[in-house]
Specification:
Length: 751
Amino acid sequence: MTDPNHPNAPGPQGDPDGPADPNRPGDASRPIGPDHPDHLREPVRPSHPYYQELEFLTHRGDPVRFAVRYGEDHRPAGRPGVLARRATLGEGAHVLQYRLATSAQGDPHAYGLLEREVEAAVALERRYGGAKFGAVFARIVGFDLTAAEPFVLYRPPAGRPLTEWAGRLGAEDQERVTGQLAMAVRLLAEADLVHRAIAPDTVRWDGARVRLCEPYAALRAGEVREPFGGAPWASPEQRAGHGAADPRDDLWSVAELAYYLIAGRPDRGDGPPADLADYRRLAALGQSGLFAARAADRPHPAALMRLLHVPDPLATAVGAADPLDRWRTAYDQQIARKRAASGGAPPGAGPHREAESPPPPAPRPTRLRDRIFGGGGDTFRPVPPVPPEPVPSPPARSRMCPHCLLPVEYDERLLVTIDTKGNRIPLDLSAERRPGHVADALRKAYHLCPHTVDGDEEHELPVPYLTNGEPLSVALVGSSSVGKTHLLAAMLGEVELGGLEPYGLKCRPLNPEAHRTYLRERVQSLKDGRQLGRTGQQTFARFADGLLVQAGAAQPRPVVFFDLAGEDLAQDGEVGRFLMGVDAFVFVVDPLRALGLPGLDPVREQSGLRRRELGDEAFSTVLNRIPRQRGGLIAAPAALAVNKSDLVRFEPVVDRWLGRALPGRHDPAALRDESRDAYAFLAHHAGAAWLKPFDDCADCTLHFVAATGGQARGDRFPHGARPRRVLGPLLSLFATCGLLPGAEPTEGIVR
């Protein structure tokens, strides 16, 4: 028998929120944890045929297992594809389970809604679960988003819906309900959340306090509004899905509920109620603009609380110091150090320029490779202006072969096509007189590299690589199994879906046939939920895929991506010699190897990986091969991507970024804030060795990304691959290299 005086025992003694609901025999206030008497420490057969075993994670990420008995299924209102039922954990802890039915799992949007709900519920529990005022929210017990039928568990709510209280509450209780709802919105806003489902049937009152329903419709503040709710409870902007989600959307719902409780009937929901003046207790709310049709015209939650004379629990609450703050300061110091070492301007200052009079003419734009290797003749000397005069169109310029790092001049005699068996077939276009046919043939043709010598592997370049703007080569760096291949496939999948178009970029394949092959073998396989095979070791570095990226009316620029096996990158061999000419790098961090968080230990055990305190050996090998500029820093821009961030998505600093989509425009301030947070997170939980790319590269941003959004089981991702923020590192590199409209490129890198 369970000791009723045990601190974790179900029932009234274990409920920190107050008296238990008499309609339920037990309470799940603290039903979990290794010290709970009902926790199954070893796998055992359930003692009763009606019982099964249920495994899930707590809001802290701790895995637990209970004997469970289920009630009957029903379909909750407003949650398509979801089934709800009561469940009893152990010896009597009652919970509510909401799970995604198998029939609804073909809809990725349905899974995304459940995932978003869990993220919101965990964020609220972690932030407010230990405070008395946190009782205004539905309290999460646990979840499992990887189960065959993903689910979330909550404590059963106390009280009755406000639909049963309309016109029956006294003036004092009406004011208490309104004040507590305003406080709930204030707490949500502080957590950067908009609930969006505050209505008479979703808010309960037990005579002392309100409790909001589960955050199944919650959005991050600032995200694009999705149409949700009906009149009068949802604001006009929310119902229409216009603009960005705002905490004041929820205040509209509070205003309509206040009117409903006093008038005993709902309003129309299109502005201030027609009879608002008939209710003196609503006069202050009306005068404050609470019933305004636009969120921007309503008061902020804190201002409404002051108007209602409701104490703000956040005004006096003293939270624990954030341990990441010291590392955010360290990030600022590192940025200042690198700017000083490379001669860059400090933050907020204008462009660096030597003091002389008169100022010299603007230097000619230089290639990044010229900065690294020198050359380019008078690249760094002022060039006097030359009067414009009509000149014939120049022939295609030479390009450095990204494989052997030697210049290649365009030569029609070296044109080939490649058949399905890989044979090089010479291409002769001298007899073709139709320009359209010539252009189409060149679009699909290759150009042999003339520098192949005996013993070297023959290689070629797509013709568009030689006939367009300055190429940009990008290499993904990391040890084996960090997810480089999945990350690149997710990136190019998002590009194929038009992910770069909001930023003013148009993309075409560098070679149509090679691109189709990559999409079929990599991108489509990942989208179908299949785990991609490991990249095999090579004897010669070839790029995985290439794009022609065009900003507005500018000349398209070839962008090629290298994805080498971790073993090749970690060895200082000939296959990696191309790294000395790579223009930009994406260093991929694996949380399982880097982070010391105990919650990752079960996943490490399953995957056979161990934490490496000395960092990624591929990082060190690659960084040691790249030439340095003045100050000992690497000129090539870099991005440090914390891949598999879904494994730690409930850490507040990760949730802040991974929980929302990328902004629809280049935002340097947001990029800096994310870099600062990611640096602090890695410095605190991983150590200095994992930040070596940031320390060594003059320009390096940091990002939280998830290529797949979940762990594979066997060779499949049970609920499909769900990439998150994977274009962030690529957009950062494009901005630095002058490819992104509206972004200022780093000095010396060709626009």
